[in-house]
Specification:
- 2 copies of one chain form a homodimer.
- Chain A has one domain (3-195): Rossmann fold (3-Layer(aba) Sandwich).
- Chain A is α/β, with parallel strands linked by helices.
- Helices cover 39% and strands 20% of the residues of chain A.
- The longest helix of chain A has 19 residues, at 177-195.
- In chain A, the strands form 2 sheets. Chain A has a 5-stranded parallel β-sheet, with helices on both faces. A two-stranded antiparallel sheet of chain A has the order 4-5.
- The A-B interface holds A 11-12, 41, 47-51, 53-54, 84-91, 93-94, 96-97, 100, 113-114, 116, 134, 142-144, 146, 149-150, 153-155, 157, 171, 173-174 and B 11-12, 41, 47-51, 53-54, 84-91, 93-94, 96-97, 100, 113-114, 116, 134, 142-144, 146, 149-150, 153-155, 157, 171, 173-174.
């Protein structure tokens, strides 16, 4: 049985991000996956990395331990959040800072000077669903879509995940109900195409 | 008298980021500026944007009010933080999410459908000091330095700031004391070059 983790960061429980999150859970269950799902706002996750987590020291935060263990157990890692200024909301950047760290997502040898680290998420598939309110041409020409760089090159690439996918749904603020339904179908189709090959 | 704001996000009070922050404060005072300075970790800032701040509603958080008022009062805005995965630490992304919002950093007309907003930081100068542990060639070729895009194009550009500057000091982990002293001198020189023309 394939195990999947779905992580959401959005402050409003009626947001389109929440609809995507729910659709992810339903789709993955329909595909026969075991699903871990976390709404970081609802669970009161603390995104502030404390000084004690700067190096390789194990965390004492039970939520961080749980999220990290589930990430390592899952083959499919799904992240849902809006694009705010080219970064994820602090709730998700803090998730990244605290979960994508040694010894979970990668590790390095303290005895080897300058060891850049070795990814520990090899074989997993990473999927990101983002929402935005900036037109595509403006996003790509002026802002260069920094979230694509961050997730695909920095995070997934560095941690050894060879396969990843990302969808940026826009412009959500102006969208019709029909458009949003089509986007949710795209969410399900994206998950299906990856889950069947795991 | 020129007013400047300096904002820091780093969890370790003996970090090089703290040394940069201190040098900013000293340099700006030597230049005769009035200085507002905030160590977000030390002040216990909450980086999680609540649902009530999604639109244009005024915040009820006294720290957010204070930081926003000081930003608007300052001609020189200085941000100090490490590069973590191509984004600022959650403490700084949350500062951005909660302070760079309407009606402070920009505003939009709710009556005009699709109004992208008008920047309210025109005339100010934005300066960013970042630290990193990734070699320059790897950062630029593989990761495309998303922090440059985020600060310069997304934030400063959108909010109407025509002039900005950014220094990324690297590789801090391997640096000598002499190198770090030179970097701190560069911090002071950068601030001086902008402050004299304000």
């Amino acid at each position: 049985m394939t195990t999947a983790s779905v992580i959401l960061a959005h402050p409003y429980e009626k947001s389109f991000n929440h609809a995507i999150f729910q659709r992810c859970i339903e789709s993955l269950k329909r595909l026969g996956c075991r699903v871990y799902a976390h709404d970081l706002y609802a669970e009161g996750f603390d995104p502030v990395m404390p000084r004690s987590e700067l190096g390789k020291m194990e965390t004492t935060d039970p939520l961080v331990r749980r999220y990290a263990a589930e990430m390592l157990e899952s083959s499919l890692l799904v992240y849902v959040h809006p694009n705010w200024w080219g970064h994820p909301p602090a709730m998700m950047t803090g998730y990244i800072d605290r979960i994508f760290r040694p010894p979970y997502a990668y590790d390095y040898d303290e005895a080897k000077e300058g060891d850049p680290g070795t990814g520990k998420l090899g074989g997993k598939v990473g999927i990101v669903f983002n929402t935005g309110n900036t037109a595509a041409d403006r996003e790509e020409e002026r802002f260069h879509d920094p979230l694509e760089t961050e997730w695909t090159n920095c995070l997934f690439g560095f941690c050894g995940m060879a396969r990843s996918d990302r969808r940026l749904f826009r412009i959500v603020a102006d969208s019709t109900k029909e458009q949003r339904e089509l986007w949710l179908d795209e969410v399900e189709a994206t998950l299906r195409s990856h889950a069947v090959s795991l």
